[in-house]
Amino acid sequence: NSAPILREVLRELRTDRLILRSVHKKGMANSFTKQSLRHLNNSELGLYRYRGQCLNLQLLLQKRSAGKFSCFIKRTSLVYLAVDESGSLVAIASLHAINWSVPKFEIGYWCRANRQRQGFAAEAASELVRYAFEGLGANRIEALTEEENLPSRAVCESAGMKLEGIMRSERVAPNGVLVNRCIYAKVRGEA
Predict the structure, then answer these.
(1) Are 190 and 132 contacting, i.e. CB atoms less than 8 angstroms apart?
(2) Cα separations (Å) of 79 from 6, 76, 128, 162, 168?
């Protein structure tokens, strides 16, 4: 087992419709998103949900560029911006909460509102799951999603993950209501 920082990680992955580009250079997310964000409408530049928190997409991508760069270099979080053939930002997918001693990863994803329900999140997530097992030696990939978020649960299932359980009253949503969260996972050797 080599130190995480010495592990080779692909900077670009491809699917039939997407190119997933890692945030591996300082300022890359900032310069790339300046180009991509102009294609987003005002509501898409606003709030989106990540790990149960509402975040401003533009601020997240621009202000955390240096953080994403250092996380990629340290191999603590691997963030990929998914673009279509025209270069427009379609989705973001990441491997985070990485435990290299297992190795295991948590996967997260977001898809532009006007590109949802077209299979892009599932395509990006499936590619990251495949790469984590084949390229990074993963033994386990997991995802957390709110029980009522059926589209996100469908992405997990499309990526080959199985529901392991539902954690009841696991966290407080932004509206102050307790919500249940599902844990999905895929382990090495599962079809």
Answers:
(1) no
(2) 17, 10, 10, 23, 29
The total number of residues shown for the chain amounts to: 191
pTM of the model: 0.78
DSSP characters over 2-35: --GGGS---SEEE-SS-EEEE--STTHHHHHHHH
Q: What is the DSSP string of the chain?
A: ---GGGS---SEEE-SS-EEEE--STTHHHHHHHHHHTTS-HHHHSEEEETTEEEEHHHHHHHTHHHHHHHHHHTS-EEEEEE-TT--EEEEEEEEEEETTTTEEEEEEEE-GGGTTTTHHHHHHHHHHHHHHHHH--SEEEEEEETT-HHHHHHHHHTT-EEEEEEEEEEE-TTS-EEEEEEEEEETT--
List Cα–Cα distances, 133 to 2, 74, 140, 174, in angstroms: 17, 19, 8, 34
pLDDT in tens, the chain (191 residues): 567 666 788 889 999 999 999 875 544 444 444 444 555 544 444 434 444 443 445 455 544 444 555 665 667 788 888 999 988 888 989 999 999 999 999 999 988 888 899 999 999 999 999 999 999 999 999 999 999 999 999 999 999 999 999 999 999 988 899 999 999 999 999 86
